[in-house]
Write a structure and sequence with these properties.
The structure holds 2 protein chains of 2 kinds. Chain A is α/β, with parallel strands linked by helices. Helix content of chain A is 47%, strand content 14%. The termini of chain A are far apart. Chain B is mainly α. Classes of the chains: A alpha/beta, B mainly alpha.
């Protein structure tokens, strides 16, 4: 009888050991790609990784974009079961994560050929992927955060072409408004869609030093020369540029309105392309142009506003080796091509040549290549409350709620009440 | 031994009420982003809150909202309770229909009405345009002059039935003989309403007003789903501004300080209101 029990115990132990050996290792990834071509591409990449790595599975924890950035990520980062990998925007968020001890230093892992597979600008002091010379973020996209998408059919009906100067732009808006069209639809109830564009406009007319000084709270916005960009927002309002419900409309419904031909133009980021399949009416044709040149005498009259997005490995990841392995797979040329074809500009070398990109994404890539400077969005570079205050001031001027001068006064008073970094 | 019996309740209360309360008060005195280590800043968050125009204006908005709810919810609920206080055929169904919005969650009600009031595709503007009233089709939730009124209206639609049920239950307990005696004395219906019905509903009215005030200060979901405080903070109430400050701007220390202020304000109003109502708590027949 004793022998029987010993045999049974041995069998159970052996079975448990065997099952443990074949049990999957689950890496947990959290991000905000909840729909569209980007989500499909990411799922495909995950499936490819799992097929290439038997015994390793990937659990995706997905949030809507706004929920992710407001509460979704912070809640997970502070939980007892942290994600192994999380999506992040380059710049201030990465720096904040490093200071809080959430982000793992990937410098050693990237020291081999992995880092060499990226374009040179992916890991520079200004790229936002590094802190104190160490790499903390693996970039997957170079996002143009604002360009002006336009309905080519509506432009053609009104004998318009993509404007190259601010004066041409205002003239085109007036033509469209006179024809009964809504020239520009924007969904600004969260302030960043227009704010991002208004920041780009500001970067075109305010010197880089003053731009930095204002957002870093080293100088008032008035002293830094921000009356001009706010006056340009006011000029857009006076030309009848925007939809009446801009301050109550969300970013996604505004994008849907553009794809449903409710407006001629829609200023938003390059991620719009990924939603075309879900939202556009049949036969919808569109293209894009960068914010037209405002002042050719400025240092960078053809700048673009852009940021990198990517993934950070958590410093306390339960499965760090597998997490790093996934990030390497995600930024392999094979996976990066899948990602780029969903409507992204990949920072991985060689992808642009191999990926079958849409005409829209080729246009965005060309715009990026021809830009004379890259301006980072303030809300991923500077303290968010200051950026949000500027965004609101821009919305005041663009909606006609306040004059440019009053909006500027409100902005400086609001920022003055904030604690300095 | 007695302490042993209260220990489970005390532990739960301590863990889920006292501890969060004390930690909230602590965080209110810190500069904390939620990501960083809290840094002690003394009274800086409180002095900033008292100078923050959006924060101060949010109390004006919530006061207007509460006045609106007193009119559209409590008063209208009372009127409907009196009008529908009958056993005649169909009245029971009408009371049920009037109460039915209460079964919807506030979030669902907010989303539903955001669709109804949408500028380009909303039901209200579609109807106005279809009857030729194009100029009346407005961006209801996108302009400061109409957004708060729209929220008050939706809140009234949602809660008037709730107050109606409270008043209706109380009305049924008023003896018919009082009305019969008044009728014999020649008192018209309106006079009976002000001299019999209202005085005998005093306790329910006090409760409903207190519910409307405290509920108004706690109001968040309808504001969040319909306007999220916009446009330009025109519908910001303390709760929406606290949430946006805490989670959009990552200023959790400052947001917690505003939460402490809100708790103190609601506490003071509730205590003062209850004291005032206790003083006059006598009914004369």
């Amino acid at each position: 009888m004793t022998r029987f029990f010993r045999l049974a115990a041995s069998c159970i132990t052996a079975l448990m050991a065997a099952s443990a050996a074949v049990a999957d290792t689950e890496i947990r990834i959290t991000h905000a790609m909840s729909s569209g071509a980007g989500k499909e591409a990411f799922d495909k990449i995950v499936a490819g990784f799992e097929a290439a790595n038997p015994g390793v599975t990937v659990k995706q924890i997905v949030f809507d974009d706004d929920v992710y950035s407001d509460t979704g990520l912070i809640t997970q980062l502070q939980s007892n079961e942290v994600p192994d990998i999380y999506f992040q925007w380059a710049g201030y968020p990465v720096q904040r994560d490093v200071e809080a001890g959430y982000a793992a230093d990937l410098s050693a892992a990237m020291a081999d050929s992995w880092q060499a597979g990226f374009i040179d600008s992916a890991f520079t002091a200004g790229s936002g992927t590094m802190v104190d010379g160490k790499i903390y973020m693996v970039p997957i996209s170079l996002d143009i955060t604002n360009t002006i998408w336009f309905n080519t059919a509506i432009f053609a009906e009104n004998n318009l072409t993509a404007p190259t100067t601010w004066e041409e732009f205002i003239a085109a808006i007036k033509v469209l408004a006179a024809a009964g069209e809504t020239p520009i639809v924007t969904g600004n109830n969260e302030l960043w869609p227009l704010g991002n564009w208004a920041s780009h406009v500001a970067a075109r007319v305010v010197s880089a030093d003053n731009f930095h000084a204002a957002f870093a709270q080293e100088k008032s916005f008035a002293d830094a020369g921000f009356l001009r960009p706010l006056a340009l927002m006011q000029e857009l309002h006076e030309a009848g540029a925007f939809n009446k419900d801009m301050q109550g409309l969300g970013a996604d419904p505004a994008m849907a309105a553009f794809f449903q031909e409710a407006a001629a133009m829609h200023p938003i980021g390059s991620w719009l392309v990924g939603s075309e399949g879900d939202l556009a009416v049949e036969g919808f044709t569109y293209s894009q142009f960068d914010t037209p040149v405002i002042d050719p005498t400025q240092a960078a009259p053809k700048s673009v506003i852009a940021t990198m997005t990517g993934f950070v490995q958590h410093a306390k990841a339960a499965h760090p080796a597998e997490a790093t392995s996934f990030l390497k797979y995600l930024t392999s040329v094979e996976a990066a091509v899948i990602w780029a074809e969903s409507g992204a500009i990949s920072p991985v070398k060689g992808v642009a040549e191999k990926a079958n990109m849409s005409d829209q994404m080729k246009g965005v890539a060309a715009m990026l290549a021809n830009a004379d400077a890259m301006v980072p969005p303030p809300d991923t570079t500077y303290p968010v409350p200051v950026a949000e205050a500027y965004y609101q001031a821009a919305a005041y001027a663009a909606s006609g709620e306040k004059s440019a001068a009053d909006a500027l006064k409100w902005l400086d008073e609001t920022v003055a009440a904030m604690p300095k970094p | 031994m007695n302490l042993l019996f209260v220990a489970p309740a005390f532990v739960l209360f301590g863990l889920f009420v006292l501890l969060p309360l004390v930690s909230s008060v602590f965080y209110a005195f810190t500069n904390w982003s939620g990501f960083s280590t809290p840094e002690w800043v003394g009274l800086a968050n409180f002095s900033r809150a008292l100078a923050d125009p959006v924060h101060l204006t949010s109390y004006l908005h919530v006061t207007l909202y509460i006045l609106g709810t007193l009119l559209l919810e409590v008063s209208f609920g009372l009127v409907m309770a009196v009008v529908l206080n009958s056993n005649r055929l169909g009245f029971s169904l009408m009371r049920g229909m009037f109460f039915s919005p209460m079964v919807l969650s506030m979030t669902a009600a907010g989303v539903l009405w955001a669709f109804v009031l949408d500028y380009r595709l909303g039901l209200l503007n579609s109807v106005l345009r279809s009857v030729g009233l194009n100029d009346w089709a407005l961006p209801w939730l996108s302009q400061g002059s109409t957004a708060l009124i729209a929220i008050m209206f939706v809140s009234g639609w949602r809660f008037a039935g709730f107050y109606m049920i409270i008043f209706f239950a109380a009305l049924r307990r008023i003896p018919r003989s009082i009305y019969e005696a008044a009728t014999l004395d020649g008192a018209p219906p309106l006079h009976q309403f002000f001299t019999i019905t209202l005085p005998l509903l005093r306790q329910q009215m006090l409760t409903c007003v207190l519910l409307a005030i405290t509920g108004g200060f706690a109001g968040f979901d309808l504001f969040f789903t319909m306007t999220n405080g916009g446009p330009f903070n025109a519908t910001d109430v303390p709760a929406t501004w606290i949430i946006r400050t805490g989670f959009d701007n990552n200023e959790l220390g400052y947001a917690t300080a505003m939460t402490v202020i809100l708790a103190v304000v609601v506490l003071i109003i509730s205590v003062v209101y209850l004291r005032l109502t206790e003083r006059g708590d006598h009914v004369r027949y």
